[in-house]
Design goal:
Largest sheet: 8 strands, mixed
Helix content: 10-25%
Order of helices and strands: HEEEEEEEEEEEEEEEEEEEEEEE
Number of helices: 1
CATH superfamily of the largest domain: TolB, C-terminal domain
Oligomer: single chain
Number of domains: 2
Shape: globular
Length: 290
């Protein structure tokens, strides 16, 4: 009899401990979710505008870790290479395409440029700035239109390397939308597989393999934070910088300084660069905790 009472008491303690742990877990989850939805001030030091060339309407920026330089694209179809101090190295006109974002494959050093309206990605050689290949993205995912033809279009791009992936990694793109109302164009980030290793044809198609719908409008820039293994999204209209896990979980939401923010990149050395449509390339000392 005594044995049964002890056993019942131990069972009671176990269940009580489990319930306490479960309640703490729920409370912590709710706290993190609430913290991720409320924007706070971005911790940074403003280092100023480095755009010495006076690039007209820059729309995307990426840091090249091999060349230790920045590549910038603009709305008029130019691609520029510059040093981190803003001094120009070279620039080239890319067929008058509407260039809206740029990223890099750090393994090969090749650049990938997002073209709005066409929903295409151009593969560009960093030394010659010539277009090597063009990939068109299928607008559908499991029968659902994510990239509306004639809509606001693809506005941002980032590449995430993955040595275990057959293509060496995947791309993430941001679709711009100015409304969250039902039946409006979707404000989404999409993971896309492009045959950059498995195909050598000059033109082929990319496929959306998953997407996350955002609760804010105007995704204007996108980059990958390799130190935190998270996506960094910026929104021009709402002046937001959002950290997002690849599974779609929001981590932090910051108030973004400046105006007309169209592109963002990190150099892995503690600096963030923001391309502003007003003509500035703003350099910040990034003080986010990671």
């Amino acid at each position: 009899m005594q044995y049964k009472r002890i056993l019942a008491f131990i069972s009671f303690l176990f269940v009580s401990a489990f319930l306490v742990y479960f309640l703490i877990y729920l409370e912590d989850s709710e706290r993190k979710k609430k913290a991720a939805s409320i924007p706070i001030e971005l911790p940074y030091t403003w280092l100023g505008n480095i755009n010495k060339e006076k690039i007209s309407e820059p729309s995307g920026v990426t840091y090249h870790p091999i060349r230790k330089t920045l590549f910038v694209v603009d709305d008029e179809g130019h691609i520029h290479e510059m040093r981190p101090d803003g001094s120009t190295i070279r620039r080239k006109y890319l067929q008058g395409r509407d260039l809206e974002g740029i990223t890099i494959n750090p393994k090969t050093g090749l650049l990938y440029v997002a073209v709005e309206d066409d929903e295409a990605i151009l593969e560009v050689h960093p030394q010659t700035l010539t277009i090597l290949r063009e990939f068109t993205i299928n607008r559908l995912f499991e029968g659902k239109t994510l990239l509306k033809k004639g809509g606001m279009g693809m506005e941002a791009i980032a590449f995430i390397p993955d040595t275990s992936h057959v293509e060496g990694g995947t791309f993430w793109i941001g679709n711009q939308s100015v409304s969250l109302k039902p039946n409006s164009e979707l404000s989404v980030v999409c993971e896309v597989v492009i045959p950059i290793k498995s195909s050598d044809t000059s033109e082929t198609e990319g496929t959306i393999i998953r997407y996350h719908e955002m609760d804010f409008i105007d995704i204007s820039g996108l980059t990958y934070d390799s130190q935190a293994d998270s996506l960094i999204l910026i929104s021009d209209t709402t002046n937001l910088l959002v950290e997002l896990k690849r599974d779609g979980t929001p981590l932090h939401r910051y108030l973004l300084p400046g105006n007309d923010q169209e592109g963002v990149t990190l150099d892995g050395l503690g600096y963030m660069y923001i391309a502003q449509e007003s003509g500035q390339i703003v350099k910040l000392a990034d003080s986010r905790l990671r």
